[in-house]
Specification:
Elements (H helix, E strand, L loop, with lengths): L3 E3 L1 H5 L7 E4 L3 H6 L1 E2 L3 E3 L7 H8 L7 E4 L4 H12 L5 E4 L2 H7 L4 E2 L13 H22 L5 H17 L3 H6 L27 E2 L1
Parallel strand pairs: 1-6, 2-4, 2-5, 5-6
Antiparallel strand pairs: 3-7, 4-8
Helix pairs in contact: 6-7
Length: about 200
């Protein structure tokens, strides 16, 4: 079964009592900016559809809308739900970025684009990739020319990420300790040991 997409305008009009919105970003990204809807935080790296269903008491035909920053991680998470037998799974087209572009309401410590608040995964990728290019470039200039290949490798990876809409560096960064900080903004990720938010959901 192919995973369907839903536009942000259509998603915004869905019945909050019938449809479950699932944010599969990191807790830091969630705290920084999120749609002003009732959301369940279930980071992709820790996501188990069966565990999620047990915690939330949902059925295989419960309408689910999965979201991330742009849609790529939500697509991967949606495939997990489909493989687990869920029949009404949709991906928010364009993710939180599209939600913001449409001017729909946001919650979080950094609901407008600036450099304050938790560093988003996208910014972390830019910082990491830029730092590696500078490092390899400097080593190639001052130490040994062979290090230039490292800078070329990082550049090629960024080109591939843009073409394929997948980013290995982003997936690696989701495993970093600062992106797995447990409960943030009143929400606990699936598998968190904190008891501050039953059901891992928040308004």
């Amino acid at each position: 079964m192919a995973v369907q997409e839903i536009s942000v305008l259509a998603a915004a009009q869905t019945d909050a009592q019938q449809t479950i919105f699932i944010d599969v970003r990191t807790s830091a990204e969630f705290a920084g900016k999120r749609p002003a809807r009732t959301l369940a935080l279930a980071p992709l790296t820790d996501l188990s559809p069966e565990d999620f269903a047990l915690r939330h008491g949902i059925l295989p035909d419960t309408p689910l809308i999965l979201l991330c920053s742009s849609g790529n991680r939500a697509q991967k998470a949606a495939e997990k739900f489909v493989e687990a037998g869920f029949s009404d799974v949709k991906v928010l087209q364009g993710g939180v970025n599209a939600w913001e572009r449409e001017g729909l309401p946001l919650h979080g410590t950094n609901p407008t684009p600036d450099t304050r608040g938790p560093i988003s995964l996208e910014r972390q990728v830019r910082i990491a990739a830029g730092s590696l290019v500078v490092l390899f470039g400097a080593l190639g200039f001052f130490a040994a020319p062979v290090f230039i290949w490292g800078a070329l490798f990082v550049g090629a990876g960024l080109v591939y990420a843009g073409i394929s809409n997948t980013c290995g560096m982003a997936m690696l960064l989701t495993q970093a300790p600062w992106n797995k900080s447990g409960c943030t903004g009143g929400v606990c990720s699936i598998g968190s040991q904190s008891k501050s938010s039953p059901g891992a959901s928040c308004q």
